[in-house]
Each structure stands twice: as structure tokens, then as C-alpha cells.
Amino acid sequence: MKVAISDVNLIETNRRTGASTRRIFLLSGTCWLVGGLISKHANGAASPSPAAKVLIEDFSSSGRSLGATLVPKVVKSEAEWRRELPEEAFFITREEGTERAFSGAYWNLHAEGVYRCICCDTALFDSATKFDSGTGWPSFWQPIAKSNIVENADHSYGMSRIAVSCGRCDAHLGHVFDDGPRPTGLRYCINSNALHFVQRTS
User: Fold this and answer.
1) Distance in angstroms (rounded) separating the CA atoms of residues 161 and 35
2) Could you say which DSSP state residue 63 is in?
3) Which residues are part of the catalytic machinery?
């Protein structure tokens, strides 16, 4: 939507003379809306508010909790994510894709450590909760901290599932199902390409 320069000038002129008409009100609202849209969609993404923060629990390389803290939400344009991420990681995390079963680097990894978000390095899962689900994707019976992930209903492809994403940068990670082992009975089915693994240190 474009606002003519003459209309903007009319608004300013009428403001100086104290006029208050319906035309002024509508055009003022249009200018405000256009300005907001320009700010929101610049570079193909919403501009993060300086006050936008999320509560994330941080973890050391040994997997020890360092406590919860408010951190800035990570928001980047599509172009920025494309430059920073490998192609497959971009497809999965920013376009909600899925890697082929048994193709990822971590589905059969048994080393001890922490699985972090490939986009923002937030700790997401611990190897202590990883199990062999036989599905060909890394599977965990719980996240490392509930505050570090977000779960939302996903009705794509004619299915009803619960999608899992990173709590700090909204990266799509995978889905959670209720066919996992004890003690939670859950299976967080996660794409390897959404993660990077940091081996545990003492």
C-alpha cells in the first residue's frame, strides 16, 4: 500500500491548523500501518524488539545446569540463515523439513554429551536420555530443560502431531510422540541436521 506525498502533506498541514477530520484520522492510521509493515518485513523477516527475551536454562560442556537466565531471542532474516547454515540444516530448521531416516550423523551416536541447536547453540538434549527407537532418527525421552524447547500442534500432511522447536530461535527440530520408554513415555524424534553434538568433558 502506497501513501501519496500530497496526502502526507495534507495531514501535516491540517495538524498545524488544528483540523480534525475523518480523512486525517484514516490517512494517519495508514501511514502508521505502512511504517510498521516496512519495519516488520525489512530483509524478509520481522525485526526483533530490543526487549524480546526468552527464559533459557544454560548448561556447561559437562552437562551441568548453570541455571535459567533471560537471553535475547534470536531472530534473523531468511537470507541471513541461508548464509550461516548448511543447506540441509536450513531446510530442516527454517523450512520445517525432515531428513531421511538413517541418514543423519547422530541417529546411531552413543557418545556422552549435549546436543545443542545448530542455529543458536542452545542446549536441547542430553545423551543420558537418548535411546534407540529403531526409527533412524535421534530419539530422546525428554529434553534437557523444558524451557529450552517449544511444542506446537502440527496438522501438516493430513496428520496430527506435536512439532518441537528451539525456544530461543524457533528452529524446527522434529516431533514428539507418546510411544517412548519410561520414565516419561515420550519419544522426541529429532533431526540430526538440527543439532550439533558437544562431547561431555569432566
Assistant:
1) 37
2) S
3) 189
Which residue do the cell numbers 551441568 mark? 64
Which homologous superfamily does the CATH classification assign to the domain defined by 53-199?
Peptide methionine sulfoxide reductase. (2.170.150.20)
In contact, 161 and 56? CB cutoff 8 Å: no
Residue ranges in 87-150 assigned as alpha helix (H): 87-95
Instruction: Domain ranges for the chain, please list them.
Output: 5-44, 53-199
Q: What is the value of pTM for the model shown?
A: 0.75
Rounded-to-integer distance, Cα 92 and Cα 56, Å = 22
C-alpha cell recorded at residue 139: 530419539
Report pLDDT digits (tens) over 138-148: 999 999 999 99
Identity (one letter) of the amino acid at 11?
A: I
- Cα(202)–Cα(194) distance, integer angstroms: 25
